[in-house]
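Sample intake sheet
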Amino acid sequence: MSWLKEMAGGDAPPPFIDTSEGKVQDPYIPNRMVSNKSANRPFLAYKEYREKQEALHTAWLEKKAARDAKIARGEKVGPLERDPTAQEEVGLLGLLKVIVILLVCVSLAGKFFTGSYTWEHRSKWLQVQTYWPQNQRLFSERLLAEYNGENGRPLYLAIDGDVFDVSKGKAYQPGGSYHHFVGHDAARAFGTGCFQAHRTHDTRGMSEKELSSLAHWKKFYAEHKDYVKVGRVNHPPIDPASPIPEHCDPKKAKAAKEEDEKKRKKAEHEEL
């Protein structure tokens, strides 16, 4: 409260004299000293960095001027050195490096927080087998039937010629609801829903809706994260004179044929 004493007619307070040590010149404000404490060091270091950069750039400009003078005199000169202070553009390679670093950081974070490099996200596209298929082979119907889970063998099923390993699926294990598909190409059953009667690859006479259902299931196995394509099955030719397998539900089959007939007539009418 010394200023109150001065207003009352007393003596003025003595001037403040900074006697603390560790003072350095403020790099931006003349005749001002600042503390060299740790909080100010980055600020002071940046000033030193800028001074060094300016010195390097000035030296480079002098070299460039000398080189230009030699060229003007017709003297032979080497390539111009790169400006040491020039900022590098990121470019495509730099961008790829940044992306790789980000992916590595995200993967390591996933491993730290969840114990999984993929953050416990399971996808077919994260599996190596998707991009480098192994053990792709051609099966006969007899060989395919042997992959039924017995004697330590895996569980294979085929759909429209493509063979998939479904060993990870619980429903395909012995006693499971879909075990009857194992060891067979039941393409027709996937389309018609006749799981017992249509365990065959014969797709003759199937309706448009049934063929669409078959395509859906084929895509399902091809894109499933746990099922891997292991090859193709070689079927013997189907005798065109042989009877088409009968539908397990005649009413459903009749309705499907009537629907296909309506679509066919509608398409013909639109063409006219």
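Comment: The helical segments are 2-7, 41-72, 91-114, 128-131, 141-145, 187-192, 208-223, 250-271. The longest helix spans residues 41-72.
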